[in-house]
Amino acid sequence: MSTSREAFLVRVRAAQRVALREDDHPAPGARDPFALPPLPVFDTPAGDRTERFGTNLTTMGGELVALGDARELCEWLAERFPGVRPVSAAPEAAVAERIDVLRAPASLHDVDVGVVRARYGVAETGSVWLSEREYGVNALGYLVQHLVVLLDPRDIVDGLQDIYRKPDFAQARYAVLVTGPSATADIEGVLIRGAQGVRSLTVVLLPRD
């Protein structure tokens, strides 16, 4: 026997027009379902994706570096952050401490440098896309002072619309688009970096192979 609450919800659903897309189904008792319009694929600017990515990244306060292999990466890390041992979720950073996925997120509060590898870059905004798989521990992308993001130039897509169509986006339990370092200018229009997150974000173009 249905309760009064269940009966009420059935009547509400029956009175609603239910939006459908692809394999979605209307609620029981719903009437007059209609399909949502298809998402258009917008035109993107012409030109090299990597160049557009770098331009937009630097506009948002990030830095772009191009390296050839893992050895160059280790040398660059030692030169850029002398005396500091980074914590890394990317195996290419052999000089770094490899993050344990079971590590307590709060324990990363005193880490100076974090290294991750982005799954995608977005030329339109200079953003990098990461999920729980890339971070290992999600807090690595927020509690460290300086974040180094490895990116294969072949993983740069044109626009945000392309990211939403990737199977990784649908399969991830957690996903984020990071665009430059943390920044705020709420108080008297003064730009402050690192107030709510990383102080610097450097994207290192480094092929996976």
From TrEMBL:
Residues 108-206 form the LUD domain. It comes from the Bacteria. SUPFAM superfamilies: NagB/RpiA/CoA transferase-like (SSF100950). Coiled coil: none annotated. PANTHER family: LACTATE UTILIZATION PROTEIN C. This is LUD domain-containing protein.
